[in-house]
Amino acid sequence: MFNVDYKNLRLSFNDFHEVTDKDMPQYGEYCLLELKTGDYTAGGWHPSGNGRTAAGYFLRGTADTVDSEEVARWHSLDRYDLTESLEKEGVNWINIGREEEEGDRNVQFEGFKSFTDRKRPKEEQFCLLIMKDGSLAAGRWNKWRHEAGGAFIYSSALASHSSDKVWAWTPLSTDEIFAAEIELENEKKREKKLNRNPSADPELFKYGTDIDAYYEKALVKLREELSWATVTMMKKKTPVWQIAPLHGKYVFGQISKNYYDDSDIVTPWTEGSTADEFIDFLCLYTHHTVEHSNPEEKFKLGTDINVYLETAFKNVKRDYRWLDKKMLTKTWQYDIQRVDGDLEFVRRYWDESEYSVYDVESAEQFIEWVENDYQSMALRENKTVASYAPHFEHIDLNGWNLESYVFYKLESGDYKVSVTAGNRSTGGSRDFFITPDCFEAKTYEEFLDRYLEIVPGHSFGLGKKDLLSDKDLKEFLGY
Q1: Are both 362 and 437 inside the same structural domain?
Q2: Are residues 108 and 31 both part of a single domain?
C-alpha cells in the first residue's frame, strides 16, 4: 500500500478556475469548490441550457446541489492520480495542479484520518477523499444502519464510495445538511440530559409510574361490560401505551423506532391531564380488541386442538379429494397453549420452542386459517401432468403487469391455475384450485361463470370474453 503517513500529509490545490471567467468543467466532472462564502465543498458539474455559460449546478447527492452562482472557483478532482507520490516515503506535501507563486491561489487540506484507525466522519459530514487507487474524490458520509462501515454519497440515486475503497479522508466545510445533523445530535444530548431525572405530574401519575397499574385499573372498568377481559387482551391493541421520559417529564406515550438510527421516538398522550382521564381513554382504546377476543367465541369447540384440525381437514377434503393426513405431517403443526396467561391458537415451527400466535376472533376464523394451509399443502403434493397457457396481449393490473397465466392438469385429474404479475421492482405468484363444482357445469360457458368467481377477470387479467373464444383451452379442460 502507500508509504506516506496520512496524518502528516498536506494536499495543496493550485491553479483554480474562476467561475467569473465562465471557464467551467466538463459535464459530470467532479470538482473541489470554493464558495463565495469561503467554504469548501465538492460536486459534479451539470450545466444548464446549451452549456456555454456558467449557469448550472454541482451535484453532491440526491436532491443535494450547489448552484453555480454560489461558487467562486473550482478545481478538478477527476484529473489526478496521486499513486506515484503516495508510494514515496517521507512525502508530506503534494501539489495538485500547477503551482502558483501567489499565496491566495493556493488552498491546503490536512488533518487526514483513516478507517484503519477506526476513525469515522460524523453523519452527513462532507469530506475530501484520497482513494486506495490514488484518485481524489469527495462525498457525504452515511453510516450503514445495521452493520459496520458506511459510504460517502456523491451523486444521485445514492451513488457512493464505499468506506473500504477510501485510503484517507478529511472534512470539508460545514453545510446546511451537516449543520442540521449536528443540531439533531445536540438535541438528542440535551434530551438525554433532561431525562436523567424526569419529574412526574402528581395529577397525571397519582398511581405511580408503572404502566401496568393503569392497565389494571382500566381492566376493572372493562370487565363491567366485557367480563372476559384481561390485560393480555388489552395489550393486543398495539402500539401499547408506556410511561416514558420526554423533555424531562414522564408522559404516557407510544414508542416507535427512528428508521435511521434506531433511537426511540416518544409520541405523548395529549387527550387529558389526569390519571383517571387516561384510564378512561385506555378503556376506549382497547375496547374493540377485547370485545373481539371472547374466549367463548374463540374456543367454542373446546380446548382440544384436534377437534379444530379435524373440522378443517374434513372441509378441505370435500374438494381436495386426494388429501390424506400423512401429507399434513409436512405442514405446520398447531396447538392451543397459554401465552402470557391467556389461551391462544399457535402454529409451531420445526423447533418446538418456536411458535407464532394466531390472533383470531373466533373458532371459525382459526379453522379458515388452517384450511388455507391444508389447501396449499394439498396442491404441492399433487404433481402436474400437463399445462396450457392462453395467449394474451399486455395487461395492466392497477400498475402491475400480467406476466404469466397457466392452467395445469394435476395427477389426480383435477386442475389448477397459476397467475404471476409484477412491476419493475416487485412481483408475486398465486395458485388457484379449480374446484370440482366448476366441472359439474354442463356447458363451457357455464363452467367459465363458476371459474371466474374463483379467479375474477378484473383482478387477475383474463375475463370471460378472453377465455370463451380459446378453443384449445376449452379442449384442455375437457369440454
Answers
A1: no
A2: yes
351/215 Cα distance (integer angstroms): 34
Any domain includes 185:
no
For residues 128 and 242, what is the distance between their CA atoms, to the nearest angstrom?
A: 45
The residue count for the chain: 479
Q: What is the pLDDT, as a whole number, of residue 103? A: 47
Cα separation, 57 vs 439, whole angstroms: 67
Residue 259 confidence (pLDDT):
74
User: Is the whole-model pTM more than 0.70?
Assistant: no
Q: What integer is the mean pLDDT of 393-418? A: 91
Domain that holds residue 95: 6-176
Q: Is residue 310 located within the same domain as residue 287?
A: no
Residue type, 414: D
For the stretch 287-305, pLDDT in tens is 999 999 999 999 999 999 9
Sheet of 126-131, strands arranged across:
160-162, 150-153, 136-143, 126-131, 166-171
**Cβ pair 92, 85 in contact under 8 A:** no
**Cβ proximity of 316 and 323 under 8 Å:** yes
Of 252, 259, 160, nearest to 214 (Cα)? 252
Query: Residue 15 has which C-alpha cell?
Result: 491553479
pLDDT band at 459 (very low <50, low <70, confident <90, very high): confident
CA–CA separation, 220 and 80 (whole Å): 75
Instruction: Collect all residues with Cβ–Cβ distance below 8 Å to 463 and sequence separation of at least 6.
Output: 452, 457
